[in-house]
């Protein structure tokens, strides 16, 4: 498929060889100072503009508007539709979907100055990207994120590698939950209800308590961690 020409800075991410061929992922670079009332945002629906206007910080409004507009353009290419005319709804868990027959599944994540979008016609997909500052006190969040196996694997790492191991684990788990569709707020599965470590190269070892999902780490900008998950 030809890469779409979009009004934003996006880059297709090469996936590991064992990732499904029907899954595609893009990295979106975000300019957090840009105004969101210009021509690049013409595809946004009125309700999306209203939602962007409710953010207290301009950077948060830019993240939402840029990711939603980019998603619209990518889905328009995928479905041979018009970006501004697509109808995006959300299910009872708040997970967005494209309201048309045989629509592809998709998922979006953003953190700091970057975002990820995954699209697939044959799988449920989830992505997550997190800014990973080296001073982050990861142990404070560990009880809410790590299963026993995850914690053991991270604690076995050299001290300098543990914070990276935590963020890798965290992004993989959030990607799995987003592919599952329950979200992070607690549902059929929770972050501590399954493990994703150890990791074999890029591929995580996702326990079946999470359902029928696999996950891989994604190349991310310096200072970030990212992951992709998909259904069997």
From TrEMBL:
Gene3D superfamilies per UniProt: 4'-phosphopantetheinyl transferase domain
Domain 4'-phosphopantetheinyl transferase N-terminal: 43-118
Domain called 4'-phosphopantetheinyl transferase: residue spans: 124-213
UniProt feature coiled coil, ranges: none
SUPFAM superfamilies: 4'-phosphopantetheinyl transferase
GO CC annotation: cytosol
Signal peptide: none
Protein name: 4'-phosphopantetheinyl transferase
Lineage: Bacteria, Pseudomonadati, Pseudomonadota, Betaproteobacteria, Burkholderiales
